[in-house]
Amino acid sequence: MSSIFIVIFGLVGFTFGWFVYSKFIAEKIYRLDPNFETPAHRFEDGVDYVPTNKFVLWGSHFTAVAGAAPIVGPAIAVYWGWAPALLWVTFGSIFFAGVHDFGALWASNRHDAKSIGALSESIVSTRVRSVLMIIIFLLLVLVNAMFATIIADEMVIYPESVFPAWAAIPVAVAVGVLIRRKVNLLAISIIGVAILYFTIYIGSTMPLALPGDIFGLGERGNWIILLYVYAGIASMLPVWLLLQPRDYINGAQLVLGLFVLYSAVLLTMPDVAAPMFNDVAADTPPLWPILFVTIACGALSGFHGIVSSGTSAKQLNNEKDARFVGYLGALGEGSLALITIVAVTGSLYAATAAGGWSELYPSFTGGPSAGGFITGGALLISEGWGIPLAFSQTMLAVMVVLFAGTTMDAGLRLTRYIIQEWGNIYEIVPLKNNYISTLVAVGACLLLAFGVSNGNYPGDGGTLIWPVFGATNQILASMTLIVISVYLIRLGRPARYLLAPMMFILVMAAWAGVWYVMDYISKGQWILVAIQVAVMASAVFIILEAWSTISKLRREDNAGDDGESVTSSSE
């Protein structure tokens, strides 16, 4: 079967999601109000609260949520076969991720741009806020530790990506300054992307390696330390100076990269080398429920709710933009996951191994993950467009590194927000300070990255984190959907469009969490056991609190217009 059918299936689904389903949710459920004064205007400070053009914000939001996860997750999950991955990516993006991301952005916008953890206090209860913020903190630490390891690995495996990855920083700063000075956005975008691709060309001819004796941790360990130094500094800069323009210009680059990849599929029409349903090895984790936590970003991700409510809500210029930024951002990530499935299952990629696809994917954890996307995608581009293979590989390697890097930028900033919110809530004055809260955030991430080891090199703990990240991520997604659902019930609006996906993903995530806890116990990975058990116990508490709140609202018959007056001071 030709890969074009996978592409058509996914894109037709996404088209329905954008033009039909998201419009219904925006008009009938969230009821966006263009006259509502957003927190970006109400609290504008030029640092975190900055009213932003919706295209710039979409690029910033998209690349902050995308990272490497929508590449790594599908590249692992295709071991079960391409059909399960395709179905979850398509329907998960339409009915789960889009509603979740869009809803978190809208709800946060209506509550002074508070994080999903902080706004749960006024929607559900103070106790839920305290517990949910712990889950969010743990997830952010997992994300930062994992992505630092992914970036370090890719920079070592693909040293051609080093120069363009770091050159993107001054390009982003220049873009930020020019946008601030109201220079034409289209001109900035074209020039910025052109410069980025020129640096990719230079990188493809000039691979760079980091000396292994800088911190005495080897090349990968040294990269991890430097990445946290950079991310810590970046997280304290005004969003308009680095985070926002870097995410935007990377988003523009990704859109161009996706166009090149999708058009390469049309030009080459590769067959699908992978089976629809694979005859997996006996020790493979079960498809149900592990598929739904292996592909998190790219179908549904609790991390997206943190970004939507933590940073994007502070930059929303008009409430009507929430659909464009939130729902379309989720579909953009789904498109990345979709092309990843094609890249790693196409016959062109399988032809690089003597034994075909089965040799490339001998086991569930034996697949090349991000490397599969880079190699398979580069072959597609080279075959379809005639672009040299070395340049194509460098382009996709840089794409992976930059998106993981922008997620680290946003992740460290969000971790700082959580720590500062704790400082405000519990009156811990030092934690309110930007520098101290950032040091605490970086220290927690380093502790996990270097405290959990896979035995390969110092700081490789991120390579073990994917399963616990996936389960934690989906549990947080279900908790976010619960909070938004309670808010809708308070407003007297239908909540079933969120409660249905919430129940499904909660069952899958809890089931997967139990499975992985047993697996970690057998391997003696007690830090990961502790994190997973803490998250699952917290989820049970939040569910009980939310159910108690819903029951109380029903008893009081507190629906309809009266419900809107008690939800938030910003209503």
Automatic annotation (TrEMBL):
It is found in: Cell membrane. GO terms for cellular component: plasma membrane. Belongs to the peptide transporter carbon starvation (CstA) (TC 2.A.114) family. It comes from the Bacteria. It holds the Pfam family CstA. GO terms for biological process: cellular response to starvation. Keywords: Cell membrane, Membrane, Transmembrane, Transmembrane helix. It comes from OM182 bacterium MED-G28. This is Carbon starvation protein A. Residues 3-345, 374-511 form the CstA N-terminal domain. The chain crosses the membrane at residues 6-26, 55-80, 86-107, 128-151, 163-179, 186-203, 223-243, 248-267, 287-307, 327-351, 390-412, 433-452, 464-489, 496-518, 524-547. PANTHER family: INNER MEMBRANE PEPTIDE TRANSPORTER, PEPTIDE TRANSPORTER CSTA. It is a multi-pass membrane protein. The keyword Membrane applies.
